[in-house]
Amino acid sequence: MNATASRRNIAGHRSHTAFGYRATPFLRTLVAAVALLAGTAAQAAGASAKEVAQAARGDLKCPAAKPAPRAAGAPVVDVVGVQPGMSWDDAATTVMCSHPLLVVREDNSRGFTMQSYGQKIRQGFDASVAKPRVERTGRQIMAEMQRDAMARGMNARRDDLQPGEVKWFVGTMGVPGDERVLNAARKERTADGQDMTVESVEKALVAKYGEPTRRMDPGDGRALLTWAYDPLGRRIGEASPLFGKCTGAADPDAGVSLTPDCGIVVSADLRPKRDNKALVEYMMVGVVDMGGGYKRLGATEQALRQADQQRRAGEIERASKNAKGPTL
Fold it and tell me: Which of 74, 85, 101, 312 matches a 20 to 30 Å C-alpha distance to 146?
């Protein structure tokens, strides 16, 4: 992000210019085939989902540390314990401790475009349920890819979660080693035999977050709820000019916007089953600190710029003290 540009216009949009989004379908297929074949060749034996998760999670210790207590009268703004301001490591631990099979992977492909001056900034992570590792031949892998390609060509519905599974995206920002949570979103698919009604889930959300500042019914059985606050932590009502401006994102796959005019926004998206609109199939809940994230993004850019200026000044000073002159 150009520090001299108007951040209000550009700061809030995630950059989707990563290689995977620009590649042609053929190239993506070829890359996936090579990766899968290489992975299969490297695997000496299969493993259960639990074994895969244990290997990836290392020496994780649960339960995770509890976040700092809320100030009196402050709104509830966490998603299963994850809230804006948490450190990258605390957030990752909290996410993995929320499910025995969740595995975290750093994801910088969805971050904000900014000048990092050569520094590596962790702009977020994904979390998904570990899958069993199964040995497959190259022929089997190619057959699966062909079936997937045919399904895409026929616009077949593809569920990103199996019943009972969850996934996350947590966005972070800060100088290297001090990245903090800006936003978090969690998606869950109801487990088989554990159906919940839209009404009961909405009541549970209200019990935790209070009455929403906005509720929308798109007419397809979905329920969209928002709890929006201004930078001072005050609820944003319908009469406020910020009512339609301060919006969050409940879907882990959606982008977020940042602006100094808004505070924290919690969002929920309840999606019903196709054959019974009264039952929830997917529940998504997200939180974003629009104002705090805006400030942190700018502060991070400034800190990186100052560090780079100091580096260059130090190099000039050392060079000026170099006793050896040029060979002429």
Answer: 101
